[in-house]
Amino acid sequence: xxxxxxxxxxxxxxxxxxxxxxxxxxxxxxxxxxxxxxxxxxxxxxxxxxxxxxxxxxxxxxxxxxxxxxxxxxxxxxxxxxxxxxxxxxxxxxxxxxxxxxxxxxxxxxxxxxxxxxxxxxxxxxxxxxxxxxxxxxxxxxxxxxxxxxxxxxxxxxxxxxxxxxxxxxxxxxxxxxxxxxxxxxxxxxxxxxxxxxxxxxxxxxxxxxxxxxxxxxxxxxxxxxxxxxxxxxxxxxxxxxxxxxxxxxxxxxxxxxxxxxxxxxxxxxxxxxxxxxxxxxxxxxxxxxxxxxxxxxxxxxxxxxxxxxxxxxxxxxxxxxxxxxxxxxxxxxxxxxxxxxxxxxxxxxxxxxxxxxxxxxxxxxxxxxxxxxxxxxxxxxxxxxxxxxxxxxxxxxxxxxxxxxxxxxxxxxxxxxxxxxxxxxxxxxxxxxxxxxxxxxxxxxxxxxxxxxxxxxxxxxxxxxxxxxxxxxxxxxxxxxxxxxxxxxxxxxxxxxxxxxxxxxxxxxxxxxxxxxxxxxxxxxxxxxxxxxxxxxxxxxxxxxxxxxxxxxxxxxxxxxxxxxxxxxxxxxxxxxxxxxxxxxxxxxxxxxxxxxxxxxxxxxxxxxxxx
Length: 613
Hints:
Low-confidence stretches: 587-613
Helix content: 40-55%
Number of strands: 10
Shape: globular
Strand content: 5-15%
Distance between the termini: 51 Å
Largest sheet: 7 strands, mixed
């Protein structure tokens, strides 16, 4: 193949200005949008009020239990930690309860069939896939599959695909070769661009494309390197954007595919079984102020250029410099200028998941730093208060782990000092029952929803497969919780001491991990487990209450090793564990779906954005 036979690597440039935004001074105020659902303020107040009532009632019972021998500074510290921690769990429970009610009553269709376009499309859409030293074969296999699917769905004339590489020069040469092979035969135009330096990481990569080529495209669909979307989903979302001109961003809820290791299959099942009720609840109260997760979303290009030029934060990393968790902030900035940000639950949107607990922790460390940066932006001028809530929730998610750890250490200290505490005397029965309900209620509701429909139940492998998967998933989640608690606490202290995270290529495939590789990463877990075990030996009642935490910490190496195995993942799947519905890659808008979701018309799909989100 000669160079002259190759298609153009890039189209003609169509520059568009993307000014840096300011977070202080005079900025446009939040504007109400036409797709704002009715009663949204009442929904949010109901959610917050229910959370507050649950938190205050539980904390009152705890305060009475601690005040038997008088209140001292340690008791006050316990209460100061207990109230926000339980309220955090209560918020998620109430939101999931609403989502469960919406789904079980049919008021929300769940993961609806992919919408067909309403009439012919007229505006151009770019599909952007940023990559960074990823598997070349896997990347271009996904690109080929999505390009073919888009063409099949009727988008060949109006959709162009861009692979936006930040890879090394050597890696880039392999990418360019793969692009050259695919671009000549692909049914839609596929372009390739590599930056010699990954300035600004992924948001810088996207911004560079917007400034150079964004003027030629009304919309851009932003993917991750591990994203997969069906052509029907992308064409349908473009149709929604054309028919809802006040919508600036439409975020899908991607589901997990290509699970191989035991860990991936476990998390995949939990996502499919419990995730829909959480997503439906989030859609209910987010409305036109939803979030952006950075991928599997369609964005109005000009609106993004006008609103989302991100400056560097003053100061040094990790709290200064480039804004890492750019997505939630970009959604807030779009809403600040009057653009609606919605979420939709449709088929055809997928992503992969880290193969092991270790690789998940590496990614989580990067997210923690980015989300904690948001604490500096809570007072940014002009943001909608719900956008501030999203920013705060993202940051506080990484503060709960050290708070739980501190609460455990305080209670253990109280026990060893002979003071009245929740562990030695046992928590009030009302608080214990409430805590169990808040923690495991969403899982129970998710399983009830799965089993409530014959077709949906069959897509999960039947009642027996669902129940036995749940019975193994819950103990695994209990063991994982203290591991994540310590890992996130370590990450937080690293961030506070100024150790920035690095943007490294993500590992997509692992067959197993060796014990000598795991042990250095869980030393703190084992040490804490031994300390709590010694405390339990001195005070057996305390040890009994802490036994799930102790067991999780001391078993961390084995948990990580066995769940990292593709062999154990395949064996579990072969025996009917963690079965999930198959992905919907082709158009499923006609007729009933295999997992029991109801059919929908294109008008229904568009109407949901703004009227019943």
